[in-house]
Amino acid sequence: MKLFKTNRLLVLISLVTLQSCGVFFTPPAGIEASSVIGEVTPTEKDFKKLPKPQEPIVVGVYKFRDQTGQYKASNVGANWSTAVPQGLTTILIKSLEDSKWFAPIERENIGNLLNERQIIRTTRQEYSNGQSTDNLPPLLFAGILLEGGVISYDTNILTGGAGARYFGIGGSSEYRQDRITVYLRAVSTSSGKILKTVYTSKTILSQSINASMFRYVDVERLMEAEVGITNNEPVQMAVTEAINKAVYLMILEGIKDDVWATKNEEKAKVDLLMKEYNQEIIESNKRVAGKGDWDTNRRSRYAIGGSFTLNSLKGDYPDIATHTGATGNFKYLFSDYFNLELSYGYQNLGSERYFKSQFTSGEVNLEYLMLPFNNFTPYFSAGVGSMRDMETPLRKMQFKSQVGVGLEYLVSKQVGIRGFGKYHMGFNDDWDDMISGKRNDHFLQYGIGIQIYLGK
């Protein structure tokens, strides 16, 4: 009976503890305590660059639809939620209003508007005692109708990942890209002629990073830890960006072909915008489907960098110690995906008690960028190199090979932050002045560094 009460007490304490700890498991970006104003998309900022129109154009939007008919993918049973938001007309009307070029009128729920006007007329007649009352002003009619919709939502157009595990400690990174496409056309209500048609697309990026540890710390004791984060770009924000871009391009196309006009004093601004637009068309013609987010290469042809490292020698002595080091590199990016790296470093290697020395190292590596058109990309490297013991200069040079994996994030167009791990395999077994066992000396290296891309 006493044991039963003790177990119940332990269960109660555990539940209270987990409930209390739950407050601390918050997302890295925090939790919004209250409602906030919606985010401003990059394409929405483009509206501020537009010149002023001679007068706003009255447009009507009856229905801007999701024409994909797709539902969200689900690994567990059926999912009846749509992949694309259903309020596309509302998003388009907001975009038209923000552009300052169009005066949108209510057409999606025109029946509600007409019913309400009829109620107003009936009420005025009943309570005016037969006296004449002012008529309602006439409804505005649209000179242009805007039609179209989201015509495709392509999932898993690019997927992949990278990972590594050694002695129960490892990490992995996964990514996925989807794509949404929007078509928008302007139709003249007087003639039914299609004045302009534009289309835009936006990729939707999902990323996941995980790290875990699985080790036996004793005969009957197992230690396991795991941490990770997943970032999914909201579909609604991607749709909004694509629609904003379509409205922006529609305005520029209309100005270019004299469908509508700007104020005379805005000519200089129009010329500048047209120059930028023509350059964007040239860049767009170079894009090939299948290259990630279809953007031009963000990284320049040459780069220099440096990193701080932690080195763990796996030699012939039983005790293992971690020592520091530093490396510098020069890169030549001869293609979008591959670059050649030359590096020179200073490494401290040794065991806890028996051996410690300082080495200089030189390497030649071939590096592969998995997502060269993205700010964030995993990468792999492999190459050959050499090492020389600084404390015994007369000693012969030691040759090795190395393979590595890492992640790079561009904080700006010229600066990238890198985290990496490398495995260096020696061609001989006397790095630590001792030859023993069947395996040559080798060491693990972890590092963090900065990469600076030179030029455009």
From TrEMBL:
Q: What PROSITE patterns does the database record attribute to this sequence?
A: PROKAR_LIPOPROTEIN
- Does Lipoprotein appear among the keywords? yes
Specify whether Membrane is a keyword of the entry. yes
One of its Pfam families is CsgG
The protein's name in its UniProt record: Curli production assembly protein CsgG
Where is the Outer membrane protein beta-barrel domain positioned along the sequence? 299-423
Enumerate the UniProt keywords alphabetically: Cell membrane, Lipoprotein, Membrane, Palmitate, Signal
